[in-house]
Amino acid sequence: MGLFDFFKKKEVLNTEEKETLDKGLEKTKEGLFSKLSRAVVGKSKVDEDVLDELEEILISSDVGVDTTLKIIERIEARVARDKFVDTKELDNILREEIAELLAENKSQDITNAFKITDVKPYVIMVVGVNGVGKTTTIGKLASQFHKAGNKVILGAGDTFRAAAVDQLKLWGQRVGITVIDHGMNTDPASVAFDAVKQAVEQNADVVIIDTAGRLHNKVNLMNELSKIKRVMQKFLPEAPHEVLLVLDGSTGQNAFIQAQEFTKTTEITALAITKLDGTAKGGVVIGISDQLKIPVKYIGVGEKIEDLQVFNKKEFVDSLFKRK
């Protein structure tokens, strides 16, 4: 099974994946619905007071101010058009407007989970600050690619943190794939070059390059990421095919701020939002999708390898608004 077949298969979640997604979003759902219920107690129609409450609810669920205002404006227009909107309909109205908002970002169509090309190897450079689950995400991705029948090579390019190199090597041993490793305090660009070179020589399908997770100095970070790109391009001119930014969903709006910072330093083509199963801040996925216009391609909703799921907008909204 090649890359295209792997992602085509993921257009629809199977029963187990859907159950995992439902469970992973439980805390966000509980927070959202309990607040919604309180907002409409004793009220029969959606009026200005209810909309004010809804605005606070969405912001407190980490949807973000700008995206929240968009959603409220849409619902206001609907109320003005229909004259009377029953509060019992609020769940469905909110669901429809959020689904429509996400659907407007055409770059997030599930069939484009990755831009499939005939070029081999397909190079993914992964960036993100320390602690967001970057290395674990790389390991899970590599395992999924490998399981789908692809030959995968990893590049341990976060050479400033011993734990990152060791962790990636453990993933390689666990999954049975090659990890290119030059050890600590070595040149990350050299690691990336060797990983791509070996992938070309071995006719590998996918190369995933880890990078340093430092954000304290934007200039240094930008220079470092640019150097890694330039060095890879000496061997494979179109590399990297994707720059995947990993964000920790449990940090809410901090994840959005990190995304903004990274987009200033390098061209991000895709996002992975992790740790959604342990937080009530899952609304951040909606805000990030809407505001950055960078496709969310993966979400982490559990500890298992398969709990790193290809992001499906429809399934996400369905799970978010599913009442028990």
TrEMBL record:
InterPro entries given in the database record: AAA+_ATPase, P-loop_NTPase, Signal_recog_particl_SRP54_hlx, SR_rcpt_FtsY, SRP/SRP_N, SRP54_GTPase_dom, SRP54_N_sf
Biological processes annotated in GO: SRP-dependent cotranslational protein targeting to membrane
Hydrolase recorded as keyword: yes
Key words, A-Z: Cell membrane, Cytoplasm, GTP-binding, Hydrolase, Membrane, Nucleotide-binding, Receptor
Gene3D superfamilies hit by this protein: P-loop containing nucleotide triphosphate hydrolases, Signal recognition particle SRP54, nucleotide-binding domain
Subcellular location: Cell membrane; Cytoplasm
Chief location category: membrane
Protein name: Signal recognition particle receptor FtsY
UniProt source species: Arcicella aurantiaca
